[in-house]
Amino acid sequence: MDGVRWGWLVAGVAVLALVTAVLAVRLLVKLVRARRLLRAAGVPLSTKAMFWGSIAYTVWPVDLLPDPVYLDDLGFLLLALRSVHAALARARAGDGDAGADGTR
């Protein structure tokens, strides 16, 4: 390949790495903001562990895939967000079962 093609290839890989890094950072910020949900009553320990585990995995230098490819980080962050929001939905559904005087 000539120099121009290598330049375009490197630029394309750099843009792809930048886009996935931005997505990983945005998901990490959402996950950190969602930590308030962990304080809600009824959130199981497994959800809390997944929350903190996904944050640790995102910043940990050892990954399943090399760091220019953030797909594994995105996957862990999405799974943790899904688990936290599912726990919140279950907690809210449980609060809807309370009677008018606040008792169940």
Report on this model:
The protein has 104 residues and is mostly helical. 72% of the residues lie in helices and 0% in strands. It has four helices and no strands. The protein is elongated. Mean pLDDT is 77; it is low at 98-104.
Largest sheet: none
* Number of DSSP strand runs: 0
Gyration radius over CA: 20 Å
Mean model confidence by pLDDT: 77
Write the H/E string, N to C.
Answer: HHHH
Helix content: over 70%
The coarse silhouette is: elongated
Question: Structural class given helices, strands, pairing?
Answer: mainly alpha
Low-confidence stretches: 98-104
Tell me the strand percentage band: under 5%
Distance between the termini: 72 Å
**How many alpha or pi helices?**
4
Features:
single chain; 104 residues; mainly alpha; 72% helix; elongated; disordered C terminus
